[in-house]
Design brief:
With 37 residues, the protein is mostly helical. Helices cover 38% and strands 0% of the residues. It is flat, with a radius of gyration of 17 Å.
C-alpha cells in the first residue's frame, strides 16, 4: 500500500468552471434544519 500524501492546496477561484458551479448552486435555496432530518 502506498503512503498517503496530504498537501495543502487552495482551489483556484479564478477557474471558470468553479465560477460557473458557484453561480449555479447559488440559484438553489438552502434547506432548513428540519428538512435535513
Amino acid at each position: 500500500m502506498r503512503q498517503l500524501k496530504i498537501a495543502t492546496q487552495i482551489t483556484n477561484r479564478d477557474s471558470q468552471a468553479v465560477e460557473k458551479y458557484l453561480q449555479e448552486i447559488s440559484k438553489i435555496s438552502m434547506i432548513t434544519p428540519e428538512e435535513e432530518t
